[in-house]
Amino acid sequence: MTQTFPVEKLQALRTPFYYYDTDILRQTLDAVDTETQKYPGYHVHYAVKANANPQLLRIINQYGLGIDCVSGGEIQRALQAGFPADKIVFAGVGKSDWEIELGIDNDIFCFNVESIPELHVINQLAAAKGKQANVCFRINPDVGAHTHAHITTGLAENKFGIAMADMETVIHLAQSLPCVNYKGLHFHIGSQILQMDDFAALAHRVNQLQDRLEAQGIQTEIINVGGGLGIDYEEPLAHPVPNFRDYFATYHQLLRLRPHQTLHFELGRAIVGQCGALITRVNYVKQGAAKQFAIVDAGMTDLIRPALYGAHHRILNLTSDQPQETYDVVGPICESSDVFDKDITLPRTQRGDLLALLSAGAYGEIMASSYNCRPLPVGYLSEEL
Ligand SMILES: *Cc1c(COP(=O)(O)O)cnc(C)c1O
């Protein structure tokens, strides 16, 4: 199945907006389900920071996934969408007290703890409520990922996690504190990772660390390898579903899971990235001295990835089949970085044409801002149009 657009229906809507193809989302979730069924003890938590649209969350929840949150607001959103609290994992390097209390009050599955001071605070807040909190430690595995420097998180220089050298110290500390339960280890090396070698390197690191813990008689129930599986931004129509088969098989082949352990994943982009497109209307076509600009009504406030990471989204003109010409596609925001793409070919484009920026389901709508006092973009699902 490849993505198609109901152009007449889209024409009637006020632009810009996000359009989510729920057939693609379901096909993606089916693939996750098929691949994880092969391996008992594998659990996928959807990383809600990629997209927290309530209607998408409802569909994702129907497939039985857990959820990965990085803020109190995300925990609230997940609970509202019906995700069970005992499938919530909660990561984040700077959790506030109210966010921790929210997790404790709801008896979430696990806190992914990123520092010793945080562990003490969780213990104190749980004690004040007469409760226990499950904790995993986010270990910085010092494993690089072949991705953009802004989205690699597992190197020693990154702010995330606890150094490998301190692993035993924090576990012993947790075991000595009355209101936290040590459950396991958590990792997350980055995002938009397409080389299975990077996940293989993490699997090997997990094996080393597990051997180290076992030699000291430390029992671990949960291994959480985070997310980061990438999507094909260059050929999204040819590859609407990411390569989940190789992804899970890599861990299955390389990570030595003990019989009593469960292996957890936190996938965001790979689940929602390809189902979403940003639909925008061409306001003007301007002939510059050396260039032709298609000036659209969406900007970096609606989709910030190109400006923030130099990311690339394929662009289709949904309403023209004229001969190809070359354009820079730019937004209306008063920033020079408000450019979606340069020197791309599109069918001859004119005022009023509808463009689709593909692969925009992850880190798109959720990152929108109201800079320039612009209204936030709305999200529509294909099945409700
Ligand atoms: C962002 C994040 C994820 C999801 O990353 P994707 O690249 O979207 O799969 C998973 N875990 C943690 C801790 C994160 O911060």
Written account of the structure:
The protein is an alpha/beta fold. The protein has two domains: 22-272, TIM Barrel (Alpha-Beta Barrel); 274-384, Lyase, Ornithine Decarboxylase, Chain A, domain 1 (Beta Barrel), CATH 2.40.37. Helices cover 29% and strands 24% of the residues. It has eleven helices and 17 strands. The protein has helices spanning 7-11, 22-37, 54-62, 72-80, 97-105, 116-128, 167-176, 196-215, 244-254, 269-272, 305-309, and strands at residues 17-20, 42-47, 66-69, 88-90, 110-113, 133-140, 162-163, 180-186, 222-224, 262-267, 276-287, 292-296, 315-317, 324-330, 339-347, 354-357, 378-381. Strands 1, 11, 12, 13, 14, 15, 16 and 17 form an eight-stranded mixed beta sheet that branches. A hairpin with a 4-residue loop joins strand 11 (276-287) and strand 12. Helix 2 (22-37) runs parallel beside helix 9 (244-254). The longest helix is centred in the middle third of the chain and has 20 residues, at 196-215. Pyridoxal-5'-phosphate (PLP) binds at residues 47, 49-50, 68, 70, 91, 188, 191, 226-229, 266-270, 362.
